[in-house]
Amino acid sequence: MAVRFHHPLLCAAVIAALTGCTQFPELDARQTPGVADAPYPDLLPLDALLNGAVPRATPGEAAVVEGRVAALKARASRLQRVDIAPRGVDGRLARLRQKAAALRAK
C-alpha cells in the first residue's frame, strides 16, 4: 500500500511553521511616559456613549497634540538630512573609479 503525499498539505504546514518565527515589534517600549501608571478609564453604559454629546478636545489638549506634531515634524526633518553612508565612502568610491579607468586604459 503506497502512501500519497499531498504537496498543498506540506505547503500549508511550512507556512504555518514559518509564521511562528515572526518577530513582532516591542510596542510596550513605545508607551508615552505615565501611561503605565495612569488609572483605567471609567466604564460607561453604551447608550450614554451613543446618545451623549460628542467629545471635544480642550484647548490645552489640542496644544499638547500640536506640540507633539511639531516635534515629530522637526525630528523627521532632521532624520531626512542625516548622511547614513559610512565615513570615507566617497573617497573610496573615487579611488575605485580611478582604478577602473586605469584598468580600462590598459
Walk me through the structure:
This protein is an all-alpha fold. Helices cover 55% and strands 0% of the residues. The protein is built from four helices and no strands. The longest helix is centred in the middle third of the chain and has 22 residues, at 59-80. The relative contact order is 0.03.
Biggest sheet character: none
Number of helices: 4
Q: Alpha-carbon distance between the termini? A: 70 Å
Global mean pLDDT: 82
Shape: flat
Radius of gyration: 29 Å
Low-confidence stretches: none
User: Total strand count, please?
Assistant: 0
Helix content: 40-55%
- What fraction of the residues are assigned to beta strands by DSSP? under 5%
Helix-strand sequence: HHHH
Structural class based on helices, strands and sheet pairing: mainly alpha
Blueprint of the fold:
Elements: H1 7-19, H2 46-51, H3 59-80, H4 89-105
Main features:
106 residues, mainly alpha, 55% helix, 0% strand
Question: What's this entry about, in short?
Answer:
The chain has 106 residues and is mainly alpha-helical. The chain has helices at residues 7-19, 46-51, 59-80, 89-105.
